[in-house]
Amino acid sequence: MVRESFNWGSPTGGFSKTISVSSGVPIVLNVSIPYIYTGLTVQISVTETGSTGSSTLLASRTLGMFSSHSISITPKTTSIKVTINTMSSLITAPFGGLFSIDYLGYEKVNYKPQTVLVNLCNDADDKYMFGFNTQENVNEIAGAGIHNTALFWEYDTRLGRRWNVDPLAADYPWNSTYAFAENRVIDGIDLEGKEFYYVHINEAPDGKRTLIEVINYTNVPRQNIANVPTGNIHTENGYGPQGDVGVNYTFTKVDNNGKVISRSGFNVKNLYGVYNGADNPKKYWESSNAKGEYPDDYSLPPIDEADLNGMIHDQDYDLLHLSGFYGVMDNKSTPANQAYRARAAKIVDKYQKGQTDAVTLKPVTKEAAQAAHIYAEEGVKSFKTAENVKKTLNNPPSPSVGIGPVRP
What we know:
Elements: E1 6-8, E2 14-20, E3 27-33, E4 35-36, E5 42-49, E6 55-63, E7 67-73, E8 79-86, E9 99-101, E10 103-108, E11 136-137, H1 139-142, E12 147-149, E13 154-156, E14 161-162, E15 195-203, E16 209-216, E17 230-232, E18 246-254, E19 260-268, H2 305-320, H3 324-329, H4 334-353, H5 366-377, H6 383-392
Parallel strand pairs: 15-18, 16-17
Antiparallel strand pairs: 1-9, 2-8, 3-7, 3-10, 4-9, 5-6, 5-8, 11-12, 12-13, 13-14, 15-16, 18-19
Helix pairs in contact: 2-4, 2-5, 4-5
């Protein structure tokens, strides 16, 4: 940076300086004016002279007192002329100066203009716009499939780490501040929007677990159950800070004196809300069965009416001792599946008419209506498809096995 100071005394006085530059190389011209006589402004102009002797104006600015300005230009010759003059020749400064210049200088912009073509989801290495963890690939940064972006973080698949510090790092001191999904970079899920519940469980030295607290972010109030406190935290969007994790379970191992030894955790995320899908919340503080399965936890309120539909369907399956794909395809599940479809149709109708959601007591959202319709009627995993397959196989429900409950 060239730095010079000047003080000009005559009314017509001004300042001009020729600066050597490189042709075709962008520069940023910096000017600072700390003093101008009362009532004046100054005009700065930048010109260059071509091979024919003609002068070309590259930039012109008007500056006031205590002002600094940066002017970006790309000269076509090897020198430029900077001129600074007052905007009036009728005033004589009483103290011998109309304006002063603190500094004048320029900086080269060190880049070469070039065109870079980036393939987005159309070459042999990258035919799908989404990558690891179901997040969108940003191939411009480091190449195909190397960088992912989400709403609240950026992720480098080479490192298995976030780019940004986890905003909840202080609550998880055993993790790196850049850790992804508790360092479970193979099977961990860490998305960007909807942590509905936080469930805290203590584990004693003998392995016995105790439910300590539940934090509810859904804006659907949950009461304390069996003296276990519930923190109903009102949030703007109905979900917590961790991301699209569904239900977060945190296990705190303590010694016989109650001192914390370690913490660990995982997330249980369903297709929609808390209950639509195969991954329901579980009572991990109770005993598991012979298969290592824990009982479902229906104490967590559904987030909306579409989620309530899923919870009712799951409870119907529980009464019939059905679960998973084989439960869906079992003849006994047909009434429960059809009841789910009927309730889903009512939810869609409510949305179209702007009617109230039975859970949130607000108008049914588009998201809830879409979820209700998709899982009931669309795709190979919908209940409509399952029932059509059953009919195709000519395998109607047998009176000998009974039918499932149909609840409104």
